Amino acid sequence: FIGNVHGDEPVGREVLMQLAYWLCDNYLKDPLATLIVENTHLHILPSMNPDGFALRRRGNANNVDLNRDFPDQFFPNNDDIKQRQPETRAIMNWIKQEHFTASASLHGGALVANYPWDGSRDTRKQYYGCPDDKAFRYMASMYSQSHYNMSLSKEFEGGITNGALWYPIYGGMQDWNYIHGGCFELTLEISDVKWPKASELLVIWKQNKMSMLNLVASLVKTGVHGRIFAADTGRPIPGSLMVKGIDSKINASGTFGDYHRIIAPG
Description:
The protein is of the alpha/beta class.
């Protein structure tokens, strides 16, 4: 989980701190907390943009929108990693190093679970699904339906949306993570108010608590997972997994040779 990508959307950082506290406090006490701690490697980054938060603005210290700063598949001339902001480079290195199965970035200003693609080839506002569209819709629906009222949205059917259909963006973290890291990322808008009152933060946490927990727990129970290793030595070897009918692949990690491929039930 990644929060506070935009400095003026601090609700994610507060909710993620509550998530970390809850997991630590309830491990071996609550079955869901125990399932998550014992079966996943869960990384929590409460604030990707601490300078923007301190300045109460969207951009970082250089006033750059970090969610428009990633190399984009539709604009290949913008692929120079050296030109990226420090925060962007750090996330890119982190994603490639850890081989995450899935991730979610938490934002404020709306109430919806957003999934790839975030932009379209011709830049028009339209539904533009990625190869794993079914799996992403499953993940987004899992979050929305576990939420206090996200699935009841009158603006977004079922409380979920394809990014390009909502409003196209380019240079976003969500699409980059999926393309270059094999990491299935959702963009979660978890509060209609970007900067809510402090007294409202615990309410927002409670409204999103089961969504976050169920999303992580669902990854334990769905998809295909295993290891790729040499039969004679038992050492991990490079390899990838592809599913017939889905034009994307997942690489096994270089350290342990393990992989986890998200596949929607059915």
